[in-house]
Amino acid sequence: LDLASGFYQVEMETSDGSIPKTAFNVENGHYEFLRMPMGLKNSPSTFQRVMDNVLKELQNTVCLVYLDDIIVFSASLQEHMVNLGKVFQKLRESNFKIQMDKSEFLKLETPYLGHIISGEGIKPNPDKIAAIQKYPIPKTTKEIKSFLGLLGYYRRFIPDLSKITKPMTSMLKKGVKIKLTPEYVQSFEHCKTLLTNDPILQYPDFSKEFILTTDASNIALGAVLSQGTIGADKPVAYASRTLNDSEINYSTIEKELLAIVWATKYFRPYLFGRKFKIVTDHKPLQWLVNIKEPNSRL
């Protein structure tokens, strides 16, 4: 659901002196906004707070709302009709109006915030993937940052992204001249193919146990959060990062343990206060609990 000119549906407060602050002059007179204007620094956060308050009884159980975009979800058609009615009633009570030509109803999947949402899970929007695939090879620092920013928006869909992009990110160091080396070009071309296999992530089920699988290489850490039976588990999200200069000098066991600690912190919103399994292919870590005198880092 898309609200019609959402910001303009919120009335300005008349008692706190806000209205005069929106004043502007044009040739035929002096005007002030009586509705919340677009472009003010606090308009987005204020509008989000208003929508959260309007739909607070339905948030996360019937719908999700981000600014003027509302997505209503249900397990069946019958339930969906009921849920739509609940959302419409809340919007009606607050006098919010929907823009019908930008709203979609009874869809099995729908684009939302750069993703495709469906009953199967969540995947990147093909239009955004096409933009990545058509991106020309970056030749300046600004272009590298722009490309990595575009790709980074979907980093949770891509295993070992930091490791793959290392030849590109190394060019961002101060004083490093950008050179189109074979490693750089290969990294860029690889990046453009990362999302072509239509990756899909399942929704987290907080009633079930999570599995955290970690790994470490000489230059990066990687992790995947998943659910299901080990070996047949389905990914919820991927994460990765490169090692800094001091971490590169760690021993193998220290790097593998660092991967576990970092990944646990990274996925803290999913794991905090819950029992979960850690999977690693580094068997020496199993004996860590038996080490009598580990070094200070371990």
UniProtKB/TrEMBL annotation:
CDD domains given in the database record: RNase_HI_RT_Ty3, RT_LTR
Transmembrane segments: none
Signal sequence extent: none
Molecular function GO labels: aspartic-type endopeptidase activity; endonuclease activity; RNA-directed DNA polymerase activity
The Reverse transcriptase domain, residue ranges: 1-117
Superkingdom of origin: Eukaryota
InterPro entries listed in its UniProt record: DNA/RNA_pol_sf, Rev_trsase/Diguanyl_cyclase, RT_dom, RT_RNaseH, Viral_Replic_Matur_Polypro
A GO BP annotation: proteolysis
Alphabetized UniProt keyword annotations: Aspartyl protease, Endonuclease, Hydrolase, Nuclease, Nucleotidyltransferase, Protease, RNA-directed DNA polymerase, Transferase
Protein name: Reverse transcriptase domain-containing protein
